Amino acid sequence: MLDSYLQLAVAETFLQPTGPIARAQLDHLNYVVILTCIAIVPALVALPLILFRYRRKKAGDRYRPNWDSNLGLEVAMWGLPIVVIFLMAISLWSITQRLDPYEELGKDPLEIKVIGLDWKWVFLYPEEKVAFVDELIVPVGRPVELEMTSDTVMQSLRISALVGQIYAMPAMTTKLNFIASDAGEARGMNTQFTGRGMWRQKFLVHSVPTDEYQQRIAEARQSPITLNEQTYAILAQQGTAEEAKTPLGITVLEGPLETQGTATVVAERDVPVGQGIAMRLPEPKIFQRVLARYKTGVPMTPETQPGSPSYDPAKASLPPLTAVRMEM
Amino acid sequence: MMSNPTPESLHPGLNLGEEHGEDHLEAETSVFGFWVFVMSDLVTFGMFFAIFAASSAPMWMAGGPGPKDFVDIGSIAWQTGFLLASSLTSGMAVLSLKERHAGEGASRGRLIFWLLLTAVLGFGFLYREIADFVSMAQMGAGPTRSGYLTAFWSLVGLHGAHVTAGLLWCLTIVVGVLVRGVDKRWKLALLRWAVFWHFLDVIWIGLFTFVFLGGLI
Amino acid sequence: MLASLFGRLNWDSIILVKEFEDPDLQLLITSGAAAAIPLGGIFLVLLLWYLKWWKPLLGWLTSVDHKKIGVMYIIFSVVMLFRGVVEAVLMRTNQAVALNGGFLSSDHFNQLFTTHGTNMIFFVAMPFLIGLINVAVPLQIGARDVAFPKLNSISLGLTGAGGFLITISLLIGQFSTGGWTNYPSYTGKLVNPGPGVDYWITAIGLSGIGSTLTGVNFAVTIYKMRTKGMKFMRMPLFTWTALATSILLIFAMPPLTAACVMLGLDRYLDFHFFTNDQGGNLMNFINLFWMFGHPEVYILILPAFGVMSELSSTFAAKRLYGYTSIVAATMCIAVLAFFVWLHHFFTMGQSTTVNAAFGIATLLISIPTGVKIFDWLATLWGGRIRLNTTPVIYLCGFLVLFVLGGFSGIILANPTLDYQVHNSLFLVAHFHNVIIPGTLFGILAGIHYWFPKMFGFRLMESYGKVTAWLWSIGFVITFMPLYPLGLMGMTRRTVDYTDPAYVPLMLVSGAGSLLLGLAFLFLIITFWRSIVNRKQLVTPIGDPWDGRTLEWWTPCPVPEYNFAVLPEVDSRDAFHTAKERGDAYAPIEKYEDIKIPSNTYFGLIIGILGCGLGFGLVWYMWWMAAGSFLAALATIIVYAFLPEREQVIPAEEVRRVDENWRREARETYGVTRDDEITEANKGLARPDVVPG
Lengths: 328, 217, 692
Known about the structure:
The complex is a heterotrimer of chains A (328), B (217) and C (692).
Chain A (H helix, E strand, L loop, with lengths): L1 H4 L14 H34 L17 H28 L11 E8 L2 E6 L4 E4 L1 E5 L4 E7 L4 E5 L4 E5 L5 E5 L5 E7 L11 E7 L1 H12 L7 H7 L5 H5 L5 E3 L16 E3 L4 E4 L5 H7 L36
Parallel strand pairs in A: 1-5, 4-10, 11-12
Antiparallel strand pairs in A: 1-2, 2-3, 3-13, 5-8, 6-7, 6-9, 9-10
Chain B lengths: L21 H33 L12 H4 L2 H27 L5 H34 L8 H34 L3 H33 L1
Helix pairs in contact in B: 1-5, 1-6, 3-4, 3-6, 4-5, 5-6
Chain C lengths: L1 H4 L9 H7 L3 H10 L1 H16 L2 H8 L4 H31 L9 H35 L8 H20 L27 H29 L12 H33 L12 H34 L7 H14 L15 H29 L9 H23 L2 H7 L3 H31 L5 H19 L2 H6 L15 H30 L1 H4 L36 H8 L12 E4 L4 H17 L3 H20 L4 E4 L1 H17 L25
Antiparallel strand pairs in C: 1-2
């Protein structure tokens, strides 16, 4: 019932799961709710009864001013929460281990590198040599592994209907593994506050059948826009994906914000409002070079740090991987 | 303003003798309170230690100098010597209160002598420490060079700042004792200061072991 | 020359000047509303000058009397609460209409949630509780004052300095936009070079030092200053929770201070603690912050638990059920508080084993908490509950709503569920659900309960009850909708949204916030009407609620020295026992001179210099920062040389006051609990004739 009321235009919650992990999380939520109720419902029911029975006017000879302990009651008071928490701890342990976001969910996961920027996400498909801004396309049934970093302040990438969230942090990588079982769309977003455009930092996850996936990748390979150092520097400027389109030379067609057409009408560089940007990715190492930016031993300056108000794309070059002087 | 002493409200281990009743109780409260503050301060040091430990791997050195490049173990040995010796002399200062009835000329002179000796040793420590910092800065191992050096400077610097405060306190007590005599108030100040000074010694042993020796190994 | 004198402060930093040059209606209205506090402060100063009330005001500000200091903490908190509530109403009403854009700009909204959080935690909840602890604890343990009265005054000064800085940021410059947690690298120098973050660092740093010292002070007070016979296991529960909170303050504030200093070093001196580059690590800040932040949660909630323990037993006219259990549970919580900090960032990518371990540790806390809830219910069981009193409404609201807050806390403790609801409105609903019905209800009930001890007269029950109901209902309407919204995926800290599905619940929540605003208004009205009618509400004999603990064994208002003769204690509810024996107000033979410390400017000076230090740092006015610091150092040294001034109240004077009080108590007929909330209640409780 709650689920139907909370129906959103696009799946934005794990109450409408489109993958096995979110489904397991929903089941666990239900389990936790029921188990907790065992401990709290008695208290909630008891309070009004006690207030009624022992209200001053009517307490009468039930009044026992010096009653302050009872061994049996004491055992029950400690025992009930202990039992409930013990049961919950067991399930917490097992499900936390089972739903490890770092664990690959099968052989040959689709590896996608994610860079968080102010206020957009860049998804790199190094094997396919394509990239998308604010658009994630995954084939149904194939495990996916996101490897994330941020090229500005800390962010948190959440795809509720599929898996949940993990932070993306500069100079570090984190992982999120999931699998989409149903075709359809889900909303992903950054949930960590990063400044004025943070609530626009949302993207659509298209879970599509394999053939459609191949087709979309093929379309993206035809994109006139290439993700390279120059275009990356433009993307790294503060602004939403929408605001980055004009500097990238994309004409934005007028249309409703929530248009969810095909992902990649890019041949004429014309896309509807709200649509992600598909790009070619001739140099897949760009993810590693973004990480390398913070590991050269040369301090960042306001001009070179994306997210800084003085960031200047002309001065912010990505270092070669050979410049890295800090190794794990 | 003191409540009556109850056996269970007396802190074990810090008793200074029973002969002074209310003064004794005030000393208890005052010194115990300072102990509690020192525990809190210890947590502050613990946090800086923790950050240092988390920043000690080569990757946090950002290609900059590591401990082997700048730790001058000879200088550290001097600093350790100064500080340990000053701890001893500070103990002698406290003991000189016990020897005779405080306030008499000889006892006060002795107290001031030990306090000043402690201060000289403390200044010796600080001098060596600052000289080390200066030479580190000159060789490009300043605190802004890397996360590791930031943590190093801050941790060692925090201790140095405490030593500076301790020295200031020590000299204040010297002046106080000269101006007002060895009265109850300055005795209490001396007891608290002594706790502080020994505490800094203990911290230094941690620094010596984990930061300097640990860094060189 | 002049430019360097003012650092980076210029005319445009002053909001009103900026407003004048570039009028912006929205900013004017919203910042104008918030700026009411500093402007009100200036007005107040002028008014005091006009009325020549400087002397009594200085008398208060320089006081070292724990009761006056407590009252000042509480007044300070009420003022800051005003600001917090205004901000809350602004944010919630904005979100109610924020589909595709509300009436607030994002920059303004970002400051609002940052100041709201910082303000409510550090300058409302903490000083409120510290105020109550100041007022009640020395009385409860039968002491004349705290262990270090001067230090107490310094703590207040430092808290005031922090409050000054967060308040002045409304008029000059702006506050941080990084949320109350202020995570780098968002708050690093590269991304946020402005003065906002520096305001946060200085305000939190200064008040944090004050809080640490308060913790030391009260731990020592409770440990060393208990009256004869007041064994640990005879202490009132509020004192126990004050002890637990003091211990938490002592050990949990240093990580925050350290984090502030480190962030400051990063920003001022280009250090690399938390920077992206050069081997900085922002995760260290997050760990430090929550090593403080989680114990902080219990710093806030434990004293409220203590108040609830006092209330349940007093207003059910019954011994507290399970004293030992509650004490054990309190100490369990205090210890466990240090081992759960990681649950604030399950999503940082650490191993699942670590997450699961911290998740289970978090679950463990709900065991002692649950036990306490059951204990309070059992305390009410078999009592004679006075449902017509304000504190009981708070108590019941607490028991119901806090349980629900614990419920959502258990959900959040599951890492796998936290992956979903972290950073969402579900989390916002959860922590408001524990802080409002827990901490705030505890505070408001505590103020109502101890008000006669502070001022000598009761608060009006009629207004008090309306206030209590408004807080409860307003809370439910405002925050319950945020749970489903969070589950629907709505994130916290969003100025607007694009999904129409959020609108209905957002409207409900916005309406609820107006009720909370009304609740605050009624709180003020309660104070105001009660002050106007104070003559009818006086309770000079000092025991308006048929209290059980020592603080009620003093006249109202309480004399400076608290107890003419320190009471001896031979049981848990010592005053109650004495009343049963019938010798509570029996004459005393022997009185002695009482020495109490005189007023001192020490705390006031340190507070003012703290303001200077903070303001100088924020605006790069180095002369001011360095000058204030050196002056503070000099003040400390100078005070070490100034003679301790004490005031001696002669035994005869003590005898006169005390004998009058005892005689009056013996000669007054007193009221039963039936007339408790009538004008007949002069603070003397008469035993009930129990039917049957």
